[in-house]
Amino acid sequence: MNKAGGVNLWVTNRILSALLGGYAFTWGFASLGIAGLAALGVDFHEAETGILMLAFLVFLGVFLWAFACRSVARVWAVLAGGGAVMTLSAWLIQQTMLS
Length: 99
Hints:
Strand content: under 5%
Structural class: mainly alpha
Distance between the termini: 56 Å
Number of domains: 1
Helix content: over 70%
Low-confidence stretches: none
Order of helices and strands: HHH
């Protein structure tokens, strides 16, 4: 593979990790935040509005961090793994609230 092909692969991987991983992380953050605030007694729509406004800043932060981080494997692990853990945690909170 020539040098240009390696650079294109690096850029493509960074863009995918920033977009897809950032989306997964932000989804997990929002779902966990909304479920957590609702469990604490905050009205659902107020929790949703507040967390989704904050989610814009979270996505911006993780998007930029995905390009600044030295290791793309770390980016994928933190963003996709963190998003999965937060989404699972939100699901568990919701199941607890429903039972």
